[in-house]
Amino acid sequence: MNVMALARARLPTGIIYGLSQYMRTYIFIPPVKRAAGGVTVLRQVAGVLAQAGHDVELVLREPASWRPQGLRREVAERDWKDVQLQSGDLWVVPEGWVNALAPGLEAGARCVSYVQNWAYLFSGLPENVTWTQLPVELWAVSHPVAQFIEQTTGREAPILRPGIDRELFATPAAKPEGPLRIAYMPRKNKAQARQIQDIFRSRNPDAQVRWTPVEGLDAQGVARALAQAHIFLMTGFPEGCPLPPLEAMASGCLCVGFSGYGGWDYMRPAQPLPRFTPWWPLRDVDWGGNGLWCADLDVLDAALLLEQAVEWITGNAPEYEATLKNARLTADAYDLAAQERAVLELWKKRMATNA
Fold first, then answer.
1. In sequence order, what DSSP letters do the residues of 163-232 get, joined into one string?
2. How confident is the model at residue 5 (pLDDT cuts 50, 70, 90)?
3. What pTM, to 2 d.p., does this model score?
4. The organism sits in which domain of life (predicted)?
């Protein structure tokens, strides 16, 4: 039975709670062929649960899918065809894979759509099916995503943020001498990244900078590239809680660019008079301006802010060191220990309501 059929069956609209006090967790891993931060986060969550003694398994749609390297904990896996969910189980599926919820809905398991990118909350929903018709709990990866969920579905969503490895992504003792290195990820809106570069070159033909594309690298390679970069240009959009800027902050880069919307979970402007400020409320945080942020897809403002970043660094401006300090505080707040605490607290609450 698929999601459409289950919705038509007029299942209760409240969350289904299993009859058993014992809660097994199954996490669906979608088939991806290249590096995907969302899959890494799912595997990190599973690793935390396994380390803490929870009964958890990963369910792979395709065993040959991409796997992140360097994870601290391995977790038991099973093929999609072999999963047999029961009432009382927790079935976690990333957003956008709505049909993957069907086995959990049919079994009366406790179903969760973990929304790691707000842009895909409604993708995959069959025509004329809404979230209010499905007994599925929605979780958010960030405060902006939780706001998006509440505004569009009327539901409150608990927040489970990702974590970065602060041992892998660490600030080096010094950055390279010579031209300033500007790291960016071409796979994140390649056309906009090129426009920003073209605008910057046109306005600054004599600027001593080196563009460093970060692509085709494993986590260790990304860490090495960011450690050698002075500036990180963020061109990702849409994003739920983008990890590359956090990794760049941890690596001592001055960050510039888009937020993807979800980045406003932690991004705060360091420039004194931002040309863009969010119209939605931001949560209170323990740090100040940690980057030079602009409106998403505003390539001109991004290029102007890139100029400002270069001026700050070459002029050793006090704003430069202050921004890097706030960036380190930000990265520390998103370390793996913080993610582990959040995972265990969320599962503790879910187990308390599963009796």
1. -B-TTTS---S-PPSSSEEEEE-TTSSHHHHHHHHHHHHHH-TT--EEEEE--S--HHHHHHHHHT-SEE
2. low
3. 0.93
4. Bacteria
